[in-house]
Amino acid sequence: MQPLRIYKASAGSGKTFTLAVEYISLLAINPMEYQNILAVTFTNKATAEMKQRILGTLYGIAHGLKSSDGYVEKILESLKEKATLPQYQEEPYRSALREMDCHKLRLRAKEALANIIHDYSRFHITTIDSFFQSIVREIAYELELSTKLKVELDETEVLSNAVEQIIEQLKEDSSEFRTIIEFIEEKIRENRSWQVEETVKEFGSNIFKEKYLIHGEEMRKQITDFGAIFKYRNVINDYLSQKKQDVINLGIQMKQAYESIGMTEKDGSKSVVTFIEKVCAYQITEPTNNAKGTFSDTIEEHITNSEKWFKKGSKNQAWLKPRVELTLMPLLAETFKAHDEYVSHLLTVHAIGQHLYSLMLLNKISQTVKSLNEESSRFLLSETANFLRNVINNQDIPFIYEKTGAVIKHIMIDEFQDTSTLQWSNFKPLILNSLATDGSCLIVGDVKQSIYRFRNSDWQILNSIEQDEELKDHMGKIPATYNFRSSRNVVEFNNELFKNAVNIMKEDCPALSLAYGDVKQIAKKEEHAGFVRIENIDYHSIDTENLPATWAKETAENYHEATLQRIQLSVKELIDNGVKANDITILIRTNNEVQLISDYFNQHPDVVNVKIVSDDAFRLDASPAINIIICALRVLAEPSSSLHLAALTYHASSIPSAFNQEEQEKMRYLPIAEQVERIYQMFNLDQLPHQDAYLFFFNDLIEQFCQENLTDLDTFLQAWDEKLCEKTIPNGTADGVRIMTMHKSKGLEFSSVIIPSCSWSIKPKDKEVIWCMPKQAPYNMMPLLPISVNRAKNNSIFADDRKEEELKTLVDNINVLYVAFTRAKNNLIILTGNKLGETLNENAPIESAQSFLIRSIPEQMQKSDIDGVITRYELGAIVPTQAPKEEKEKNVMECEYDSLPVSFVSHPSAATFRQSYESDLFITQDSPNPRSQKHAERIRLISLGNLYHSIFQHIHIPNDVPHVIQMLKSKGCFGTLLDAKEAQITVSKLIEGIAENHPEWFSPEWQTLNERAILYLENKILKTKRPDRVIVKGNQAIIIDYKTAQGVIKTEADGCLVAPKDNREQLENYKELLQQIGYTDVKAFLWYILDNIIIPI
Question: Could you tell me the pTM of the whole model?
């Protein structure tokens, strides 16, 4: 037995069983060994399943449950093999292994289970990301990082904040502005969306790709400004020009040789003469996809056939022919070769140019993300592995990993095909250390189930691990022959389908042959043969009477309608043949299809009346109660909006009298959590059925949001619209036909599976960006380049990169099909097709899921046709739902508990408060009482002042005004305080007026620091002050502080205006702090915005 074992486990082969056997075998040798075992997988769900499986199996073995007999047999076999290993030849291991039997194994299992339960924190089964996070946290002190380091899972939000910050701070003369303009113009030329933020965010997501993370640092150091980009562009353009000149020079040489050997117009072919003239002037037609241009096949024939050089009947051909063969033909061959080189470089330069200027933008986004993370003491999950790689480089690996508090001796990695390059580079040293210290390692995975490349997983690591020079001497393989999940026909269908596909593609894709070399399995289930159907959605096979009257077979919309019809009829057929609705699962490619399918079933209950269950059906915004709460909050945030009021009326049917304007005004000043509770009470949401789970989850969400963000209502509603509305609650075991994506189905199994719309493209998207590392000079002056797939032409230096991307995309898509097709235990129905009326082509190139299916269909499947058109391939008969043969044994570690009824109840507060006179005035601001009105006006002015602060906080130069107003308007910041158009006009006039006496205040020549904190020590205590606006230039600094109070300025006897003392003292403090920082020329001004008075301090 080798210490490192590889288990390439195909679908349904029992990989979790194998992992549990290995884990418990180690515990049988030493019941405390769990402290030295690290087991990792890639999802929280898989981690929970592995923990439950090990604990449940230990319990089953310890209590002699029949369900654990298979484990006992395999564990005893494993222990016999381990008894031969050198590390177990000493006591007490030697005697324990020799004397091990069923009884002693049960005792060891009981002891190990008790140990784990009482020492659960050292039961190290975790996700690989969590493991790396724990390492980073443990070494945070040594790395001088914050000990309160927060790991952020959602990189999209951080990216979004970074892009918004960049755009908000744009200046017309900045490199970022020029970069974004270049970027947008390029998108317009591609006929793509030019919406700034979304387009930039889409491109900015490239910073999280592993190739950029690993190799991008060198590039980021190189690109500090546009100068580096321009220099690189000029170098490659000059190189291209030289290649072009090489072709022209050869053309000139040909012309001179043509004349020197005595060729004349009477002798030479007109086509070759014209060709030479065009080459000399480089007036040639470049090659296209459809034609070779001037350098055509006809001209190329002149390289090998001297007869082509002469006109028919040339009198001088006999004595000129040797000269042509000796001189012109070699020159023509050399010219063709030089032109091919030029075209290659031309395509290369064009490919580079598409995204070259965008590198500056990507650099800026990367820097901003890094800055935001540092400010928040935050680490992105996607960057953790790269950070750890940099830390452990040339370090003492065991020491770093031991910081987790575990001495790792045995390692088990599940779902290894989902490992990324960075993760493997971090994990491999740990494995080598384990093997060097008499430890063991079990790697379990299946290349065929690698479907997470969008998360940087790399199936090639597992595909080539047996050739790893450092590991192969320690390595052994565990055979995986049987399929314990699926019935015989399903297994044999998948065996033949994927074997046929590999045979078809083996020449173009040899890596696929290696990945699918172990695809053949033997079915262990013998009770039922199983059922498989492939159906082409064609107008021959659909019920046209139930389609709309406007139906036309050519339209994509009606193909979708026909597909939805076939999904529902397939469900009906299964149910009619004895399959329960709970045993049917529809696997889809994207979440977009969920609502379409669900709506169709709801609209056609007469065909089959079943409920559609999916995670997306349990989104928060699908809850009537939550929708009422959100609509009511929108009314509170923007009471003048009739649209919000109409939406609330629609969701609530009627608005209770308690939710009147007076009550709304009071509620606006409450915390969000209290606002929600008052809405719950007023609208009697406790009367709505089945809403408790949504309400519990929503309240937890509010609490979490308020802990991590600004707690104002506008910010919460913006976050709701952007992402919170998509949150889903756990759906438990709801009855009905389940629907989920193929990616979510990985690791699961279902009795009957329907896979609709199995027709998507399996080629990479043309606009997909791949990161290339050019090796050829001068292109390698830039270590990493983003290249679009459609620009990486065959003749460019990026052809191999494109082919690699095509290979990876092909394998990804075939793997998705493999995962989907192997989920079914008994019945598998696949629906395919592209448009109605399109016949199947069994010789079509494999470019889509449909052509993959049709080209690879097993011969044993029976064909069905209508009017000569093949519409179905079938194997076997539908297997109905079977009643359980015997009652399942009770295992307290695995049993499913019945859910207890819970309800969400809101109790009105019984406490009473005595209010001060001032607070009473505040609440009753609509009162006719003059004092109340005065106080209400004060509150209004404070709110207006806060709004003006928000506006000027984002303004750097006058041109920022329209964007800032629009941004704040979109966030709902204006409400009834101020009209957005009026605000834009007012602010613009204020800035124009200031420019007469203070042009530097909003000048792009000065650096603007809005709401920037100044840190200082006072009595050894760190404190901060935050001026509204500071502009700096060299040693000069100007402080501008906004005030919105009116009538507070006094006029002295000499006519001078004097600000309140506390305002003046505040500015004097700011001036002193800036002078301490090092600014020698500091000025300060108080700007009373509403009175438009400026007072120097």
Answer: 0.73
